[in-house]
Each structure stands twice: as C-alpha cells, then as structure tokens.
Specification:
It contains no helices and 16 strands. It is an all-beta fold and 280 residues long.
Length: 280
C-alpha cells in the first residue's frame, strides 16, 4: 500500500488449528508477520487537533508480529525525524525534533526524544503502558529551551522533571530556572462579568464545589536575574523563587517570594524609581 502521505508493506502467515479435514482458523490460530510503515508527512494530522498549529515531520516503524489472532504480540522500533511544531498565536516554535522508541509486548519505551526551541533543547525518555494507555512516566530535561518566543512574551528555561500518567490522571513535577523572560502587559483588557453576576438560563457555578483536578502540578520555579515585566506603567526586573501546586480543588496556587530588583513606575505624569520590593 502506498500513497503520497504514507506507505506500508507486510508479509506473514496464519497457521490453522488442527490438520487435514479438521484444520480451521480461529482466534487461537498462531500468526507470524513483519510489517514496515512510513508516514512521509505529518502535516495533515494537524487538522485533527482543535487549535491553530503547524506540524511537520516524518515517522517510520518496523514491526514484528507473533502470538495468535485473538492476542497478537506486536513489537519493533518506531522512529520520527525532522519534527516541528508551531503555535503562532502562543509564540511556540519547535524544530529539529527526533524520536527513538521501541514497542515491546507490555509498553511503549521512549528511548530518546529531543526537539529544539530557540537555541536550546528539550529531551525526554520514559515508558507508556500499552494496556489501556493510562499509565506512563516520562523524565524530561530542558537546556536553555525557549518555551515562548513572541515579541511581547518570551521565556527561556533550564530544568528537569517528570510527567506521569496513572489511572488516567496526569502529574507534572520538576524544577526550572528562567534563563530569560520578557512579558508585556496589555494596556487594556476586555471586560468580564463579576462572579456574583447570574445570567438567566445559564446554571450558576458553584465556587465551593470540589472537582476532580485533571492534573496535579508541583513545579518549583527560580526566576533567575533576567526576567522583565513591562506594561500599564510598570517596568520592573524580577527575581525570587515560586512553587506552583494544584490544590485538592484543582486550583493552581503559587507560594514563595518575588523580589523587584529594579524598575520604574509611571502614573499621572510622574515617574517613580523602584529600588526594592517584595511579594510573598
């Protein structure tokens, strides 16, 4: 089978159960096959995701099959090269990605994954269980990795951590340091309704309702000495340490200390120099 998007070849055999007139095929029939599949362009798969994104790259697999028709055992290496992902609206632009993975009888083992963001890289390795695909553990490491690259929103980080999936719940832990950060605040924002406003015909949200959080986050962030925030009269450089955690209600909370190392504040025609400031 071959097309402009993908190609695949396979060969093998299915053995019957029994012999002679009693030979028959069933779920217990042994199988033995090999297959090769290649996806020349990943770009069309971006249309399956409900967001504006640009995806490119190629993927290849060389698989071997055994076991029975009812319980096939498929193993083999999976590779991907020239991976690129861009979310223009968010400022995400990742390039030069590679993947080396191995499909075993019990899990998908990510031997290595890496992709470039700016002048840095993000690398990862770990495992994903094949039964239900609801358990995974991926260790990640960032080296001067550009997370955001918009003119008004730029973030470069270094750090390491783990992303895990257990029982369908995602957990994200790690420690990162901001090598560079620049955030410009919009001069004005669209108006929003207060929480005490009730719209007729729309169910009112219950702020005291405990919901099951989709992900648990425990991330320690060191701001470093090169993070700048500008806008709405403020131009400051920040430092400090913050810990981001999700509560039992699923709310993201931040604790720690943020210091304003230097900066200015302009209001009502006056320019004030910020010598120091602390936010706990």
């Amino acid at each position: 089978m071959q097309s402009a998007l993908a190609s695949a070849t396979a060969k093998g055999r299915i053995a019957p159960i029994g012999s002679g007139e009693n030979a028959r095929y069933s779920g217990a029939s042994p199988i033995d096959f090999t297959a090769e599949a290649s996806i020349a362009r990943l770009a069309p798969f971006a249309a399956l995701i409900d967001t504006t994104m640009i995806l490119s790259g190629e993927a290849h697999a060389r698989l071997q099959g055994g076991g029975t028709l009812a319980a096939p055992q498929i193993t083999g290496p999976i590779t991907a090269d020239h991976l690129a992902l861009a979310l223009p609206a968010a400022g995400v632009d990742l390039k030069g990605g590679t993947l080396r993975a191995t499909l075993t009888q019990r899990q998908m083992r990510v031997d290595s994954f890496s992709i470039r963001g700016g002048e840095g890289t993000l690398s990862a390795s770990g495992t994903l269980a094949r039964a239900g695909f609801d358990e995974a553990s991926i260790d990640w490491r960032a080296e001067r990795f550009m997370v955001l690259g918009r003119p008004d929103r730029r973030l470069v980080v270094t750090g390491k951590g783990n992303a895990a999936l257990q029982g369908g719940k995602l957990a994200f832990t790690g420690t990162v340091r901001a090598n560079e950060g620049r955030f410009e605040l919009a001069d004005s924002a669209l108006p929003t309704l207060s929480e005490d406003v009730v719209i007729v015909g729309r169910p009112r949200a219950r702020p005291d309702a405990v919901r099951n959080p989709p992900a648990a986050v425990d991330l320690r962030v060191e701001l470093g000495n090169n993070v700048q925030v500008r806008g709405r009269g403020v131009d400051i450089w920040l430092a400090g340490n913050v810990r981001l955690q999700t509560s039992a209600r699923g709310e993201l909370q931040a604790t720690g200390t943020v210091d304003a190392r230097r900066g200015t504040f302009v209001a009502y025609g006056q320019r004030l120099d910020i010598e120091r400031g602390h936010l706990y």
